[in-house]
Amino acid sequence: MKSTVEIGLSQAQRKRVIESQRYALMQHGYHPHSLLWSNTEVQELRFKILADIGICRSDSVLDVGCGFGDFADFLKRENKAVEFTGIDVSEELLLEGQRHFPKLKLIQGDLFDFSPALQSYDYVTLSGVLNRKYDGASGYTFQLITRMFEACKTGIAFNLLDARHEWTAGRWDLQSFHPDEISEFVSQLSKNNQIVDGYLENDFSVYVYR
Fold first, then answer.
1. Is 103 exposed, middle or buried (0-12, 13-18, 19+ CB in 10 A)?
2. Which residue from 14, 161, 170, 191 puts its CA 20 to 30 A from 133's CA?
3. Which of 10, 24, 123 is nearest to 67 (CA)?
4. Pairing of strands 203-209, 193-196
5. Which domains can be identified in the chain, with CATH numbers?
6. 124 in Cβ contact with 151 (< 8 Å)
7. What is the mean pLDDT of the chain?
8. Which DSSP category does 130 fall into?
9. What gap in Å lies between CA 121 and CA 134, rounded to an integer?
10. Cβ neighbours of residue 28 under 8 Å, at least 6 residues apart?
11. Is 155 exposed, middle or buried, given 0-12, 13-18 or 19+ CB atoms closer than 10 A?
């Protein structure tokens, strides 16, 4: 019998993510802690690096694992108001986000549920989603990056935890990657890519352009 490769999150993994986000939201409300960020400054530093891929005012942006939709608000405050679509598996996070940003387009699901058309957004972004330890984490990570790239017209930007950082690499509950591993993979999608690091000791970002 042929084995099949599961695409996207399994139902069990999806349930774990939703339940952990629900608990965090009950504990912290509208706060970066509910998204498993340490503080607003760290969250927005990562946002700045993502935006530096070249996002401009009026671009279309799909944000994968958008949480409350804070990235759209950050871009607006940076005078880069975009045509924003956010997707997240947590309905509770999206409902809270809609309370704060009622005009945002926020959709429940993961990228494989949403299944955007090829090259349908200028940029596709992701912040923090792949820090969580998933079953078969590397496989899911590479599936997700590939699908993001398929959906972009111009480029994708995402961040990951850095396996070169001893404390991060040693965490049983976090997934980290070596930049060389990611560079090798994204080079199969496009030779026009860039690793950005040095802004936080345990994090790096990746730009992949068409």
1. exposed
2. 191
3. 24
4. antiparallel
5. 11-209 (3.40.50.150)
6. yes
7. 93
8. G
9. 27
10. 34
11. buried
| Tokens standing for residue 11 | 């139902």
- Residue written as token pair 């200028």: 122
183: number of Cβ within 10 Å:
15
Type of residue found at 86: G
**pLDDT, tens only, 199-210:** 999 999 999 999
Write out pLDDT tens, residues 40-59: 999 999 999 999 999 999 99
3-state helix, strand, coil in the chain (%, to 5): 40, 20, 35
Q: What are residue 45's phi and psi, to 5 degrees? A: -65, -45
Max CA distance (Å), the chain:
55
Q: Of 27, 155, 36, 154, which Cα lies nearest the Cα of 88? A: 36
